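Write out this protein's structure.
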Amino acid sequence: MTGSGLLIAVDGGGSKTDVVAFDRKGTIHARIRAGGSSPHLEGLAQSVATLVGAIREACAGMTASNIDAVHIYLSGLDLPIEITEFRHAFTVSAPEFSRNLVVKNDLFAVLRAGTEAEDAVAVICGSGTNCIGVRRDGAEVTYASLGMISGDWGGGFGLGETALWFAARSEDGRGEPTALQSWIPRYFERNSVAAVTEAIHRGELDRGRLIELVPGIFDLTDAGDEVARSIITRQADEIVTTAVTTMKRLGLGDTEVPVIIGGGVVSGKHPVLIDRVESELARRVPAANLSVITTAPVTGAALLALDAEGASADAHVALISALDESAPRGATVLPFRAREVWAG
């Protein structure tokens, strides 16, 4: 290990930003949570401002010379040009934190939080969906993750938008009946699905609020609504298709590969979703080793920073224990239908 200063690890997403300052022994000196910082949602300038403010708060009382490296893993950095633009804007705004700066998509943090394997795939299903695959020779498979225009479907917003689509067709007769037709207007305090649609169209109701419908879709699935269930099943199939495609593109389809899934949509481990993912993945790639990650992605970001410094295994364990106090010490895999990972 080299250097005696602190390391900064950042995981930024659509709803929250986690910043951790720690040393090479895995001791945490500060942990900050701020609002969302995805450039796709907040814009580049606001994203940088949120991150810089949170990092400065975590580093309060320290000088720039006390900070050896900053590792930022951020949702919304899906294209190489976006990483370049973010790095430039961050460096201009906070040159004191830019001496040893790592900037990557947040999926790298999710993957590292779930496994140390050199051949692995991670699919995140949060506000949107994204996937990454890595191979031990350095090969990577990534996706643009720009929504429908780049071939993506699902995540919280996609599920909510699809639920509204089904509800509208139930109301006007073009589709099959579903309890979504009555539940969605009631949730948004409107008298009909048409009124919800008009409110979104006219800007009276923020389209982004469709993500709020996800818990209700799961609840109606539990209540036996077949349309709601079909939405959840489609999400499961999309996760599996993306993971399997990624493995095949890396030539890993016949090997035992960890497949890590995480994000707000899957973190509740709803059995209709998880059982479908597990069964379909096992059918299509029997050697795949499915895990549902519940560890916060900032843990993966911090582990990557320790990896880069050549920190000891004891430092890794100390950091994990400090960041996830609920995790059983010494464990790496916990029993679950789809094994639940504690990053170790």
